[in-house]
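Ops channel
N.P.: pipeline sanity check, posting one input/output pair.
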């Protein structure tokens, strides 16, 4: 079993991930492991080299946890010898592997990769990344007691996320060689479909290529990773812009994130915050009754915003994923069908935002302990992944 656990970040954890890291540390410490977090953004280059030498030691009873493959490991040590992480190594991805392709290539083949949803395993294989994988969702193991969604909360609706002003398909083609143009068309088509019906990104792209008569199997892996990333960025943007444009006609909303260039900054019914830090997001969320989560790139797992919404005592209204079925069945959140036409979708959202529907979800939340819906704890998931024989024999 693990004697020491080191969680390494690059400083970019002022988010829900920070709460999950705290939970991991507490759980490991309660099991007798020495545990610490190291923020590489505060570490000098010479100290990073010391850490690389430490991790190079063959001590599998020590566990190294890195996030989103942002730390790219060297191929060689400073003395020219081959570099290999000798600790047990877990790389926790909070998104599609395609977004972190270069970092994942630098990992040892025996590193364990934690994924948000099952379909991402296929993405790993399509990108020729051989690592063993385990599901490691954004859902916390346990929720603390959270405040109720009182009517006196200042704001009723919050939408958070980014809807970046992406380049047009024409300008994207102009920046790429002609042999990639068919696959750019396929990516845009897959994104438009995903924005209406959440589905695994790789499967959508492959189907789009097949329907258009393009053979994508020979694409360079780095190119495939870039195209899959474009699909997800574009589908998120399309879905978010559509919902905001529908809502601001008759509803006042708080808007957090990069929505610049779409005219929302001056819209009458929009309180536009722009990009903010996580502390500001949390404070806004704690004064909100309903938070809309629009991430159609997730069809099985889900984004951390659903869980941070519940932890803040607000009600999530979210794109549907299979992971959320138990929570919808329990009545503590509701989902959106983005495949509806605009009129029907606006009507459905208005119904879901009614005081009566919110009250039903608040009551369900009061009667349903969230930890009862949680699966295996994260630490147990890691132990079973690294020590399968020990647990198989128990």
């Amino acid at each position: 079993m693990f004697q020491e656990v080191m969680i390494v970040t690059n400083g970019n954890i002022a988010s829900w991930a920070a709460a999950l890291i705290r939970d991991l540390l507490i759980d490991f410490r309660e099991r007798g492991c020495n545990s610490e977090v190291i923020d590489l953004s505060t570490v000098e280059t010479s100290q990073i080299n010391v850490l690389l030498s430490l991790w190079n030691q063959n001590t599998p009873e020590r566990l190294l946890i890195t996030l989103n493959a942002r730390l790219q490991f060297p191929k060689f040590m400073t003395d020219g010898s081959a570099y290999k992480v000798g600790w047990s190594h877990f790389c926790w991805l909070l998104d599609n592997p395609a977004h972190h392709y270069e970092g994942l290539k630098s990992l040892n083949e025996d590193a364990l990769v934690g994924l948000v949803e099952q379909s991402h395993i296929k993405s790993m294989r399509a990108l020729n990344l051989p690592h063993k994988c385990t599901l490691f969702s954004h859902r916390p193991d346990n929720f603390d007691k959270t405040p109720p969604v009182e009517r006196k909360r200042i704001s009723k609706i919050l939408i958070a996320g980014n809807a970046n002003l992406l380049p047009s398909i024409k300008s994207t083609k102009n920046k790429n060689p002609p042999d990639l143009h068919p696959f750019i068309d396929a990516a845009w088509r897959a994104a438009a479909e995903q924005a209406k019906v959440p589905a695994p990104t790789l499967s959508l792209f492959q189907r789009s290529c097949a329907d258009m008569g393009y053979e994508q199997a020979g694409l360079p892996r780095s190119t495939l990773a870039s195209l899959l990333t474009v699909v997800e960025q574009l589908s998120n943007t399309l879905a978010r812009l559509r919902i905001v444009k529908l809502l601001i006609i008759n509803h006042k909303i708080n808007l957090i994130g990069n929505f610049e260039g779409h005219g929302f900054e001056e819209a009458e019914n929009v309180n536009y915050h722009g990009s903010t830090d996580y502390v500001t997001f949390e404070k806004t969320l704690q004064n909100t009754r309903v938070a809309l989560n629009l991430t159609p790139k997730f069809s099985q797992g889900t984004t951390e915003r659903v869980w941070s919404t519940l932890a803040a005592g607000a009600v999530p209204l979210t794109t549907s994923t299979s992971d959320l079925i138990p929570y919808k069945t329990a009545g503590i959140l509701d989902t959106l069908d983005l495949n509806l036409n605009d009129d029907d979708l606006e009507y459905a959202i208005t119904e879901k935002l009614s005081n009566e529907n919110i009250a039903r979800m608040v009551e369900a939340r009061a009667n349903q302990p969230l930890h009862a819906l949680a699966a295996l704890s994260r630490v147990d998931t890691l132990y079973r992944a690294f020590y399968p024989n020990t647990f198989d024999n128990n």
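N.P.: looks fine end to end. The longest helix spans residues 221-247.
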